[in-house]
Amino acid sequence: MKKAFAYISIAMMVSLLVVGCGHRSGNNPLGVIGGGEDGYGSLGSVGGGSFNGGGGQHDASLVGTWRWEGTDNNYELLTFTSNGTFVANYYVGGELFLTVNGSYSTSGNTLTFFIEGESGEATYSIVGNTLTITEDGDTTVYTRVS
After folding, report:
1. CA 33, 4, 92, 125 torsion: positive or negative?
2. How confident is the model at residue 9 (pLDDT cuts 50, 70, 90)?
3. d(Cα 12, Cα 107) in Å, to the nearest integer?
4. 81-124: per-residue pLDDT in tens?
5. What are the angstrom distances between the C-alpha of 69 and each of 18, 53, 63?
6. Which of 54, 57, 65, 98 is most buried, by CB atoms within 10 Å?
7. Structural domain boundaries of the chain?
8. Could you count the other beta carbons within 10 Å of the beta carbon of residue 103?
9. Which CA distances in Å does 115 have to 5, 25, 88, 99, 103?
10. How far is Cα 26 from Cα 98, in angstroms, rounded to an integer?
């Protein structure tokens, strides 16, 4: 399970080393709704409820692009699509540093990631335009971007 998050964890650790800050927050003033893996979508891309597809259950309110904001122009864009895939882009100093692609499913408040044949679980919650993901006691707060 840990191996699936290894790519994301390594990117976050490198970003935190560059940022020099161990605290993550979701202060992002953009707050635009929508988005998808192939680009930024329309306001209609986000809805409530859940649906089946891509081999598992998916929470429709998770679909869209979410941003974690660091300091010194370090940030992450995490995009969940309606077909059960995701892409995480990590930026250091405003430049793309790492891209991780995978798939996901949800059950209740559990988010399961699948990356290169490995899986891992985290808990998540969405309140308004704020997504909180907690994995092994580490919490990351994202704000809906598009």
Report:
1. positive
2. low
3. 25
4. 999 999 999 999 999 999 999 999 999 999 999 999 899 999 99
5. 13, 30, 19
6. 65
7. 2-17+24-144
8. 19
9. 8, 25, 11, 12, 7
10. 20
Residue type, 14: V
CATH fold of 2-17+24-144 reads Lipocalin (2.40.128)
